[in-house]
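Hi P.,

Sorry for the delay on this. The queue was packed all week, but I finally got your sequence through. Input first:
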Amino acid sequence: EGGSVESDGKGTILSTAECLLSDNRNNLSKEEIEAKLKEYLGVERILWLHHGYLSGDDTDSHVDTLARFCDEKTIAYVQCNDEDDEHYTELKKMEDELLSFKQENGESYHLIPIPMADAIVFQGERLPATYANFLLINGAVLMPVYNSPEKDEKAKRQLQKAFSNR
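Then the structure:
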């Protein structure tokens, strides 16, 4: 599934262990999945996120709702600063993982935090709404908005840092 892998376009894949190593998706070991990704996608490295949870998520933590390559040196990711939000602990652990990742040349990635969207509840259940689920198209970035002017604008400004030419 496209949302389960994120590529920097230079030989590195970012994914979540929750998704690709899930028994209901693959019956392969981590090593077997890595070998297939390398063979099928021609990549050299896989960065695994072991944290990152979104309430209501039925994709087993697709990376495209959590953290995204903006280029080979930059990762935009969902940051939750509200300690009362159920996502706080897992997203903080994910942030720590991202801080530990190194580029192929050994340098740290430039990280761009995007705010966690305010809770969106539909039929009594919280939806996995994040600003990380953006789409790159020729000349533009399409990003979701959630009728939360302050956070919508902050997410827009953060993504503009990564995509100043769009």
